[in-house]
Amino acid sequence: MTFSHQMITQAAIDSFAGTDNPRLKLLMQSLVKHLHAFAEETQLTEAEWMAGIQFLTATGHTCDDVRQEFILLSDTLGLSMLLVAMHDGAKQGATEATVLGPFHTHDAPPMENGADITNGAPGQPLLVTGRVLSADGVPLAHAMVDVWQADAEGLYDVQRGELQSERRARGLITTDAQGHFSFWTVLPEAYPVPTDGPVGQMLLNTGRHPWRPAHIHFFVTADGYQPLITHIFREGDRYLNSDVVFGVRPSLVGDFQSHAQGKAPDGRDMQQPYWSLEYEFSLQKK
Ligand code: BEZ
Ligand code: FE
């Protein structure tokens, strides 16, 4: 870096010296410092920066009430998961968190413990059972388990055009007095993140695939405990080591077991092969 480059960078940093809010001042000064270092390190050309501006403009134009391309950009650059991991670090014995993703809704239908949340979503039957505990092992009664997932075609209910308002493979289950929950759903499959926008183009131009390994999303809450946003991933999925949004943590890979037709552990008579998954979630005290 030449002396005059340094003067430009320093002047831009100093221009924020009068910012009243100390946090805003730190964020802006650090952003300028790292942006300038990026330009110096890569010897960024003006044409390249114009392409970058056009990319960011297209990213904004792709956003609407239901599509958030900037979040997808943050996800595919690993920034969303870095923030999750940074703020999830100090927990002792609690289940690890991962990204929320764009398909959570606030209207998951409340379901009885043991209910079938499938509602027509295609896929092989899957029985999910588990408990919600405190990080020191005490079962939590009346914890809320909000669950959502993609089906066998790799689609969430909200992605299904005219069926978009129907809730499928999504539900809200309350734990019993011993902290148990269970529900029937379908086996999740891997799916690609949306590729019809600028982020998809970025993945294509850089030789990256757009796939997320198969998973079920959980948002677990209980009075007095920190909310837990996480997924359980399917063991053996071909994308476990290359999740496009970097959300996989080894502790979140679940043991999905396949079964021949017959009586399921909850007494249901299964006329077809089915799957089961058992998982315990541990929450950190507030
Ligand atoms: C999801 O798991 O639903 C998701 C997360 C980040 C980007 C796209 C989808
Ligand atoms: Fe997902």
Notes on the structure:
The protein is an alpha+beta fold and 286 residues long. It has two domains: 44 residues; 211 residues, Protocatechuate 3,4-Dioxygenase, subunit A (Sandwich), CATH 2.60.130. The protein is 26% helix and 23% strand. It contains six helices and 14 strands. A six-stranded mixed beta sheet has the order 1-4-3-8-9-10, with no helix packed on it. Strands 5-2-14-11 form a four-stranded mixed beta sheet, with no helix packed on it. Helix 1 packs antiparallel against helix 2. The termini are far apart. Bound molecules: benzoic acid (BEZ) and fe (iii) ion (FE). Fe (iii) ion binds next to strand 8.
From the coordinates shown, what is the CATH architecture of the largest domain? Sandwich
Name the helix and strand elements from N-terminus to C-terminus, one letter apiece: HHHHHEEEEEEHEEEEEEEE
CATH topology of the largest domain: Protocatechuate 3,4-Dioxygenase, subunit A
Instruction: Look at the helices and sheets and give the structural class.
Output: alpha+beta
**Beta fraction:** 15-25%
Major sheet: arrangement of strands: 1-4-3-8-9-10
Shape: elongated
CATH top level label of the largest domain:
Mainly Beta
Rounded average pLDDT: 95
Query: Compounds present?
Result: benzoic acid, fe (iii) ion
Specify the helix fraction band: 25-40%
Work out the number of β strands. Answer: 14
Rounded to an integer in angstroms, the radius of gyration calculated over CA atoms is: 23 Å
Number of helices: 6
Number of domains: 2
Terminal Cα span: 47 Å
Uncertain runs: none
